[in-house]
């Protein structure tokens, strides 16, 4: 058979049966060398590299395309040269070298346009679209792929039509439009089967499985993987074998087969590392992190999470993004050049285009290094600048990690428009608080970093951090609302706390989380012991999640007494953790962790239900006491909070008037209008409302008058000042007296907490305070002991 006929037979097999194609092409190369047929030799070499590519041997594919490219140029075969350039781009793209890939595709496009090769143009445009997809620009990718698909259909090239159709399936998937991706995959699958394109059939079926998984049909996704895997092994495409294994592992995880998922994903990771595809390896590390976390292996989960983020940075920031983005602008200008009658417009219009290209490159370079919402430096710019300073050894540098407290709740309750405006105002305040030589960056979400150049010492860095917090303390005016926002700041210093970018950022992050746990609105500098504490914190969080499931949480009840008569009138429910190893864990040791992790919401709901059930059970006692329950800010901001209170009352049968919900001043001040609406709904249920810790936050007389509170709880710090110096005791006495008179004037009852001495009790009686609680009156008791007190209570306070 002649070489031309063998090439014609081998070319479609590159996609459908690359192993068979290799056998034919080696025969073609031998015959072409004997006959001196250079064109056939180059074509065969190029197609052999294509076989290596579709079998996921990317180093061999690069080598083959390089050899074919040199041969094509030596004989002046420009069409083959364009094809080899395109293959080089594909091989670089698969290994995450996007800048080089874009350059090869651009050169291929230029040649195809010069030759009037419409199919070559479609091929290059489709691959440029794939780069957009890889760079998280799926909208642009989808537009280009659909355009290329239309061109391929109108020019009568079914293979390119099928190729671009399968690419559009991927674009829809990356956009999260899973139903559209799945629907198009049905049409595309029929098309590639008609053409016998087994390679594309495997790709489309892989994405069908991924779509099924995202659509919540994990069982069907697993079956699709089982069906397609032998197909991919038969083709020899190790890249998509790896993808199928990853999806199969994820599907097993969704079906609660954690052991099977771990094994499957580990095998997939090994294959991804073997073939050198960083993109796949990053995704598999992310899945393994989730699976190991579910198994309770937090150290392993953390290792895979770090590996995921490290690979993501390598893949997407290799050329600091601006190179590929500038090249994408150059592609658009290049297309305009070819379509604008170059000969007639060469002098004037091309000069204008070059100016426009330079401006576009400057604009895209700025975009690649700046956050589009705030205009601040982005992560890539921040890391580049920090790396430059570290390499230059220019004195001591400080990295400040600033994280807004409760930003998610603001975003969820007031909407993203308000959240975005808040981030913009925060950015302006941070910039106004540092020197011109310092750098403020937004890392994403509500996380900001500040790079302080040449700080003299740690105290200087802490002084700047406190200045940042002060700048954020003033109210924010957002769309007619006044919001109070706090932040937490962590500090790491170079070189003392780290010599590289990643270490410094991680240590500043750890210090920030320590600050957040210590009460928010706090500055903390990194210490070596904090890193060890992070693992302990992860372990304690895991145990706390288990405590909810395994019923290790218990309630203790502290009595509340009428100050004038001494009679027991109610209880405050206080949560405790009965740990099987640590013993009784006090709330101060786990409540901050619960708030940081979001576990405070299910814990708060459990406390509310349990307290209502217990109070209802005491209805038959001589005294049917009221019950007070603390409400966390995060719990209060849940959309269904009022519904959860209503449900707790309904399930327990407790009279609403016997339930008091205690809310802090700061909770109300966060969003006054929303709090007002929620409080009115709670009052409509018939429950009582108490302002807790009065005097420690943004106390406002106008708010007290507007908000529908029944009780005012004076913070223990005022009551216990009686034990300190005489001047402090006098001021405390005056403050408590003022609070009592204020509350009585507003028709509120006053509860003082933290009573620990006879002197404090006497003072409250003299000030005509209504109610009190504290260790002097009654320590928090388990339910059974509290019930004994109820049985004994006939009017006097309980004995210690």
Automatic annotation (TrEMBL):
It comes from the Bacteria. Keywords: Coiled coil, TPR repeat. SUPFAM superfamilies: EAL domain-like, Nucleotide cyclase, TPR-like. Pfam families: EAL, GGDEF, TPR_10, TPR_12. Gene3D superfamilies: 3.30.70.270, EAL domain (3.20.20.450), Tetratricopeptide repeat domain (1.25.40.10). Residues 537-794 form the EAL domain. The keyword Cytoplasm does not apply. TPR repeats lie at residues 82-115. CDD domains: EAL, GGDEF. Residues 523-550 form a coiled coil. Residues 395-528 form the GGDEF domain. PANTHER family: BIOFILM ARCHITECTURE MAINTENANCE PROTEIN MBAA (PTHR44757:SF2), DIGUANYLATE CYCLASE DGCP (PTHR44757). This is Diguanylate cyclase (GGDEF) domain-containing protein. The lineage of its organism: Bacteria, Thermotogati, Deinococcota, Deinococci, Deinococcales.
């Amino acid at each position: 058979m002649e070489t031309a006929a063998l090439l014609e037979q081998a070319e479609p097999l590159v996609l459908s049966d690359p192993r068979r194609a290799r056998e034919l092409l080696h025969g073609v190369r031998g015959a072409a060398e004997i006959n001196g047929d250079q064109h056939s030799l180059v074509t065969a070499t190029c197609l052999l590299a294509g076989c290596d590519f579709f079998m996921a041997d990317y180093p061999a594919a690069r080598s083959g395309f390089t050899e074919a490219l040199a041969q094509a140029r030596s004989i002046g075969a420009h069409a083959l040269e364009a094809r080899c350039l395109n293959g080089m781009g594909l091989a670089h793209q698969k290994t995450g070298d996007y800048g080089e890939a874009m350059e090869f595709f651009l050169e291929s496009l230029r040649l195809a346009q010069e030759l009037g090769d419409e199919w070559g143009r479609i091929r290059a445009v489709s691959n440029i679209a794939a780069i957009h997809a890889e760079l998280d620009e799926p909208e642009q990718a989808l537009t280009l792929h659909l355009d290329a698909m239309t061109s391929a259909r109108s020019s009568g090239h079914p293979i390119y039509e099928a190729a671009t159709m399968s690419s559009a399936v991927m674009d829809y998937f990356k956009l999260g439009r899973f139903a559209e991706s799945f629907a198009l995959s049905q049409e595309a699958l029929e098309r590639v089967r008609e053409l016998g394109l087994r390679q594309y059939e495997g790709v489309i079926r892989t994405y069908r499985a991924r779509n099924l998984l995202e659509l919540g049909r994990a069982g069907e996704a697993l079956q699709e993987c089982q069906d397609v895997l032998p197909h991919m092994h038969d083709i020899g495409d190790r890249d998509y074998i790896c993808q199928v294994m990853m999806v199969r592992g994820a599907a097993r995880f969704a079906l609660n087969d954690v052991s099977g998922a771990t094994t499957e994903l580990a095998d997939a990771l090994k294959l991804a590392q073997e073939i050198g595809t960083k993109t796949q390896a990053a995704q598999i590390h992310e899945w393994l992190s989730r699976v190991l976390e579910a198994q309770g292996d937090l150290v392993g989960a953390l290792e895979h999470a770090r590996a995921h983020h490290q690979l993501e940075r390598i893949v997407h920031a290799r050329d600091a993004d601006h190179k590929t983005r500038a090249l994408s602008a150059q592609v658009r200008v290049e297309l305009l050049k070819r379509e604008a009658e170059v000969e007639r417009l060469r002098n004037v219009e091309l000069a204008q285009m070059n100016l426009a290209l330079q401006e576009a490159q400057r604009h895209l370079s700025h975009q690649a290094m700046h956050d589009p919402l705030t205009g601040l430096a982005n992560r890539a710019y921040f890391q580049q600048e920090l790396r430059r300073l570290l390499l230059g050894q220019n004195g001591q540098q400080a990295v400040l990690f600033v994280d807004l407290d409760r930003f998610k709740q603001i975003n969820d309750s007031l909407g993203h428009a308000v959240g975005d405006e808040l981030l913009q105002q925060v950015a302006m305040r941070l910039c106004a608080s540092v020197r011109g030589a310092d750098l403020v960056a937004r890392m994403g979400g509500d996380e900001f970093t500040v790079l302080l150049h040449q700080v003299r010492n740690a105290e200087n860095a802490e002084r700047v951090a406190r200045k940042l917090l002060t700048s954020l303390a003033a109210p924010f005016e957002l769309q007619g609302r006044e919001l109070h926002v706090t932040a937490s700041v962590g500090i790491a210093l170079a070189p003392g706390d780290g010599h590289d970018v990643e270490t410094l950022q991680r240590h500043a992050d750890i210090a920030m989380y320590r600050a957040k746990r210590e009460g928010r609105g706090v500055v903390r500098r990194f210490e070596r012991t904090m890193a060890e504490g992070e693992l302990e914190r992860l372990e304690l969080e895991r145990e706390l999640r288990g405590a909810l499931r395994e019923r290790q949480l218990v309630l203790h009840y502290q009595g509340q007494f009428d100050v004038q008569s001494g009679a027991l009138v109610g209880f405050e429910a206080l949560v405790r953790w009965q740990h099987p190893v640590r013993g009784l864990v006090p709330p101060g040791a786990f409540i901050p962790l619960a708030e940081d992790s979001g576990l405070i919401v299910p814990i708060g709901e459990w406390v509310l239900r349990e307290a209502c059930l217990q109070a209802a059970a005491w209805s038959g006692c001589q005294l049917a006491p009221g019950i007070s329950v603390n409400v966390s800010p995060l719990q209060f901001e849940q959309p269904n909070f009022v519904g959860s209170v209503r449900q707790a009352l309904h399930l327990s049968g407790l009279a609403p008037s016997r339930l008091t919900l205690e809310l802090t001043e700061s909770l109300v001040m966060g969003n006054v209008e929303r709090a007002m609406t929620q409080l009115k709904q709670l009052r409509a249920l018939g429950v009582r409302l108490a302002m807790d810790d009065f005097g420690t936050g943004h106390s406002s007389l106008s708010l007290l008058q507007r908000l529908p509170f029944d009780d005012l709880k004076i913070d223990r710090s005022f009551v216990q000042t009686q034990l300190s110096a005489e001047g402090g005791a006098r001021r405390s006495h005056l403050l408590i007296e003022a609070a009592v008179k204020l509350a009585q004037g507003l028709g509120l009852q006053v509860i003082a907490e933290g009573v620990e001495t006879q002197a404090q009790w006497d003072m409250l009686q003299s000030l005509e305070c209504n109610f009190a609680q504290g260790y002097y009156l009654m320590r928090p008791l388990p339910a059974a002991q509290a019930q004994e007190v109820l049985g004994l209570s006939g009017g006097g306070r309980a004995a210690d």
